[in-house]
Amino acid sequence: MAQVVIGGVGDADLIESCGRVSSGSGVQLDTTALARLQKEAVPKDKHQPEAAGEAILQAPSYLTREQARAVIFAKLVTLVTGSTGAQPQLLSFLNELLAHDIVPQLPAGESDSAALDQLAATCRGEGQCRNSSSPDVQSLAQALQSEGCTCSGISSAERVSIQRSGPATCGVAALALFSNRKLSVLATAVAALSCEALQAAVIFPAGDEAGLAKSTQEIYNDLQGFVEGSKQVTSKRKGSSALQESIDHIAEVHGALALAQTHAASKLKPEMARPASRPDKAGHVGASRSLLGYLLLLARAALDAGRLSLVRLQALTATSPLLQDVQVTAGLKLQQAAESTSAASAKIDNRLDREGPSLQAALALSDAVSALQESLAAEAFAALLTLRQQAGPPVLQPNGNAPMEAAVTSDAAPKADKKAAKKKGKTAGPALGKGSGHLLSALAAAASGVSGEAAECINAGPEDTLVWGLLQNSSSSDLSKASRGVQDLLDPLKPNLEPLLGSLRSIMEANQARRRPKVAKGARDLVPAQMMVRQAAIGALTGVFTRHGAVAIDTPVFELRETLTGKYGEDSKLIYDLADQGGEILSLRYDLTVPFARYVALHGVSQIKRYHMAKVYRRDNPQMNRGRFREFMQCDFDIAGSYPPMIPDAEVLKVAAEALEQLQLGNFEIKLNHRQLLDAMMALAGVPASKTRAICSAIDKLDKEPWSAVRAEMVEQKGLSPAAADRIHGFILSEDAMNLRRQPQQLLAALSAPDHPFSSNADARTALEQLKILFDLLHRMQALDHIAFDLTLARGLDYYTGVIYEVILVGENVGAIAAGGRYDGLVGMFSGKDVPAVGVSFGIERMFNILEQRAAERAAAAGHKLRESQTQVLVASIGKNLQMQRLEVCQRLWASGIAAEFGYKANPVLKEQWNYAEEQGIPLMLFFGAEELEQGTAKIKIVSGPRKGSDDEVVQLSDIVAFVTACST
């Protein structure tokens, strides 16, 4: 095995390294680190080794060989990276213990203390050990002498450095995580194999199933990858049972296991990497309580996975007495591990000191992982035998002698010969998924005692003669031998499992790549025809914005989560959060307004008129037919800065009206209200301030629900008094409010009357004064005709402070296609200095949908499909060897800014060229032959438009640019 280097810059994964060292790899101490330690060490003439002490000769239980090696490795990591003043010889001695596999007997107690006290005694040459040359316990001094190792002793200060707690827990925990990392992958593979053996129903939810955790979906993907191509598993449940329930929960339980592994590893790694401090300085004295909590959480997750495995194992062995003892042993080990975990958890809950039962927690995790391993190995072996039994007698005999070949009965061989003749050489047996089949082959080879190239010489799948022989004439010794072979293969600390997992991953990923691709829920691909419509619309909108003097900006697609938090009220739950990839907690932008406010604050902008078109993301329930997606384009126009009252507001509304007129979407209205007017209504109606936003959210539903439903929500769900709800009705649904909404100046006059309740409220008076200015400005801008003064508009976003508005298409059931308002306080959330701002956000996706639908209708009426390009001219030819001439004519058109194509075929047929021009909706086709070229002319056909079908026109090649330009105008 390759050595593990520690102490250098950019060390590898410490958990992986610990697992490798525990399995037998050696350690190489970084030379630079050793040189540093030599400089920092106490001078040799002042190094005073301690006198012999008392080694722990008896303990109720000891760490295993692998666990003890893990503890030594973890201690080495802390010493080599720390500044303890220890002699480098101490580290070299610990390294020699690993190199010669001299493993001290370290007590397995509640805390690190006993184990590290004994490790300190080991450094004095005291205690007992085991080593590779002798499995029996022997004197440490004897083992050191036989291996030629010398012990220079340790000083009292070095003893303190070794005894400081942490590494024993970290080492044992790292070893458990190293094993569990492999088992979490293996568990899904074995579960898939059992599903095949049981011919179970495995239901794979759609990728867009709501509420499915990421870790659960990943397990579903893995499970599907393993059984890809299987004819054993079904998609129809056969009633409910404990077995079916356990299969239904595979993804959830295994996903939780993988997630707990990730959390525990993220907490363990920094504790393992923490350098040891000088003995005379305060240092950490134990593993953190939060780490212990994560270790126990992982232990429970491993036990849950083990229990699911046990249910499947019971189903596999229900009709076979061969594995009853294996099943009982696996169940007993799971029960003992559960008791160990419960005991550790109870002791940790009752201890507040750092030197609590930390090692006990790591040992409980180790027991749980070991129990999971035992259960998976038993389940895999049972699945192997079950599938072999289902396959019937083998078709092909193995070449040469195999360990269990003699077990094949004389009756079985003729049957196999007959079946082979019937199948004409074809293999028989269950049709498994590729991943499951590969795992089964590996298990069969391991159970048969065949490995390496020899495994390829037998039909090491369901037709494996050796396993069939085990089923026909088994003995307890044969069964035990085969079971041990499977256990060894699936042992995370032995070398055979990693290559198997690697090959399973490759098969699984290849299977996933072959599945039919699909787009994520709430997203979509855009085809060229759609992009043509979108580009035209974007160009029209850009023209409106730039005509009003706006500038363009862009911001990142993701923001710090703190930037977006608290800006969207109830809609904050729809923000997409990203997994932490680089030390920052990030979220995808929910809209373009908050990033714009952050931009203004960050760059110290005092005045700006800007537009921004970009994609935003919302974790909403998409309604594709109504243009509601999770990823969609948004278009914003905003004016920020201090200006005379309501002038920016009026221009924003004018821009919104111009944009919609430019796009020719149809009749529209701009519903308008004022935030302060809403607050005044709430106050006058007796709505508590704490309920104002919730009640406004209910009011905002009046465009979709009747007043009775909204009132019921206010009273029954929001806790508003019936009298207050009725007073709200008197404001927002009064006769004037309903009849004069499209006559905003008349409604404003009615609301401003001295006898109206609004006259007694300062917020209402301010709002009405601002609206009077706004309506006068809009009247001058000839934009007032589109305004509907709607008191039921109560948009739920928290950051609006003044006018609010949304745009709807009259008679269209597509919802709001634009919305906005004044947000004077938003920028101040980032800079502490308010910058007044007002803007409108266009629901451009809904606009695009309408435009695409209408363009498709026009194209269908014209007899061609929706255009995908802006090509104006197709340059064609008649005859051979004219491709260069077509290219030269195209170049003239390109140079003049005319979109043209010439076709890539060297000698195209004229009919094909005409058909292409018709299908693509290209208006003109210019064509020529050798005769036309000699005369310097070309012919032009009108392919589409009012003049379609008219006679061909002959044009001089020198005049084609002018002719095409005239046709386009």
TrEMBL record:
Keywords carried by this UniProt record: ATP-binding, Ligase, Nucleotide-binding, Protein biosynthesis
Catalytic activity entry: tRNA(His) + L-histidine + ATP = L-histidyl-tRNA(His) + AMP + diphosphate + H(+)
Organism expressing this protein natively: Apatococcus lobatus
Domain of life: Eukaryota
Annotated segments matching region Disordered: 395-432
One Pfam family it belongs to: tRNA-synt_His
GO cellular component, one term: cytosol
Molecular function terms, GO-annotated: ATP binding; histidine-tRNA ligase activity; RNA binding
Enzyme class: ligase
Domain Aminoacyl-transfer RNA synthetases class-II family profile: start-end pairs: 515-851
Protein name: Histidine--tRNA ligase, cytoplasmic
Similarity remark: Belongs to the class-II aminoacyl-tRNA synthetase family.
Classification via PROSITE patterns: AA_TRNA_LIGASE_II
Enzyme Commission no: 6.1.1.21
GO term, biological process aspect, one: histidyl-tRNA aminoacylation
